[in-house]
Design brief:
422 residues; mainly beta; 29-stranded parallel β-sheet; secreted
Length: 422
């Protein structure tokens, strides 16, 4: 009952007095075996007693009626089920304000989205639209769509590379969870991040589609923070920021068969922005395709950072089409002065092929305080397809080249550009 009261209070961003009243009413209803809306018992589809349809709890699929209460009422029944249960979003357009699906739950939970869930423009007390929290053994699936309505707020977002900034709400956030699978769904026009995983373990994301215009700010496809054993597979991500961004404290992350672009590439970082960040290790990106992204394969860290480490990073078997900055380590990212103290070790870029619009195919710009060690660039064949003519050349003086600073870079195999001078 306490969880239920907290869900309603956090989800409905109205006046404090209204929140308190709603919490008291909700608690009373639950105590009497009811839920908001007046019905008693565990209403479910007649064909399957473990499937709970949100329309049976008051949701209206007209695209205009805020159905957040129906989502919460349905979740309470699903989460309290002693056997595996499903929350079903059927065909239709369901407007919903911020919703928190909190656990722990009594059994495995499936959220099956067949319709379209549409975000409200305002009313966000916390920086997420839909939050799953403290729920283990969850499957989020279906052919439906989460539409974040980011086009209504992007012009007001001026975060850029600011040290302090309050981003608009993330569309789908997963926090303090284990054993999560996400498949089939689409996310369109998130206000900020499409997905944000924080303090999660054993997560599999596959066959999803995340889409926003190339000019949309901070619409990262999938952002990870303190996430362990995460796999992102067989998906399409086309956004205005990083397709995948691996943040602080992440370990054992696999990204395979992802099509990225437009966007800012596949990134580790930015790291070192905050105090006492945890190390990052075991990040493996393989068999991905990048199309007209502003960056390709990137590691980025802030200057003036606290000490931390990045180790065991592999980017292999990558196809690029007209990619800018295809291979880049940037330890001067952001607007804060001073040397980065994020130590980068054991990085492999291997079998990268296709086309680029940047003269410097490889840009390794490491910290004076902690130079990069064990950076390997092997079998990189990228043809320059940028604007012909002009005076601009690569750092090596030719049409294409490589730039290395404060780094021990080992080049090998077949290369389409001259190596950095020793």
């Amino acid at each position: 009952m306490a969880n239920a009261r907290r869900l309603v209070v956090k989800a409905n961003n109205t006046t404090v007095g209204s929140l308190i009243l709603m919490a008291l009413v909700f608690g009373s209803c639950v105590a009497n075996g009811e839920y908001l809306g007046g019905r008693r018992g565990l209403a479910a589809n007649s064909g399957n007693p473990t499937v709970y349809d949100i329309t049976k709890f008051g949701a209206v699929g007209d695209g205009a009626t805020n159905s957040f209460k129906a989502f919460l009422n349905t979740w309470i029944q699903v989460c309290n089920s002693p056997v595996p249960a499903t929350l079903l979003v059927p065909k239709g357009d369901f407007l919903a304000g911020p919703v928190i699906f909190a656990g722990p739950c009594k059994s495995k939970v499936t959220v099956d989205v067949q319709g379209t869930v549409i975000a409200t423009t305002s009313g966000y007390a916390t920086p997420e639209w839909i939050l799953f929290e403290r729920v283990d053994n969850v499957l989020l699936t279906g052919t439906g769509t989460f539409h974040g309505k980011g086009e209504d707020v992007w012009k007001a977002d001026g975060c850029g590379k600011k040290v302090q900034c309050n981003l608009p709400p993330t569309s789908l956030k997963f926090r303090n969870m284990k054993n999560v699978e996400i498949s089939g769904i689409s996310s369109v026009n998130a206000k900020a991040f499409h997905m944000f995983l924080v303090k999660t373990e054993n997560v599999k994301i596959h066959n999803i589609k995340l889409v926003a215009p190339a000019e949309s700010p901070n619409t990262d496809g999938i952002h990870l923070s303190n996430a362990d054993h995460v796999s992102i597979l067989d998906s399409t991500i086309a956004t205005g920021d990083d397709c995948v961004s691996v943040g602080r404290g992440c370990n054992n992350v696999t990204v395979e068969r992802v099509v990225c672009g437009p966007g800012h590439g596949l990134s580790i970082g930015s790291l070192g922005k905050y105090k006492h960040e945890e190390d990052v290790s075991g990040i493996h990106v393989n068999n991905c395709t990048m199309i007209e992204t502003d960056n390709g394969l990137r590691i980025k860290t802030w200057g003036g950072s606290d000490p931390s480490k990045v180790v065991d990073v592999k980017f292999e078997n990558i196809i690029m089409q007209s990619v800018k900055n295809p291979i880049i380590i940037d330890q001067n990212y952001g607007s804060r002065g001073g040397d980065s103290r994020v130590e980068i070790t054991d990085v492999l870029f291997k079998n990268v092929r296709g086309t680029t619009i940047t003269h410097d195919i490889v840009q390794i710009m490491c910290s004076k305080s902690v130079p990069c060690k064990g950076v390997n660039v092997v079998d990189v064949n990228l043809a320059y397809v940028g604007k012909p003519g002009g005076e601009k050349k690569s750092s090596a003086g030719g049409l294409v080249g490589a730039f290395c600073d404060n780094a021990n870079v080992i080049f090998g195999g077949k290369l389409s550009f001259p190596m950095c001078p020793k």
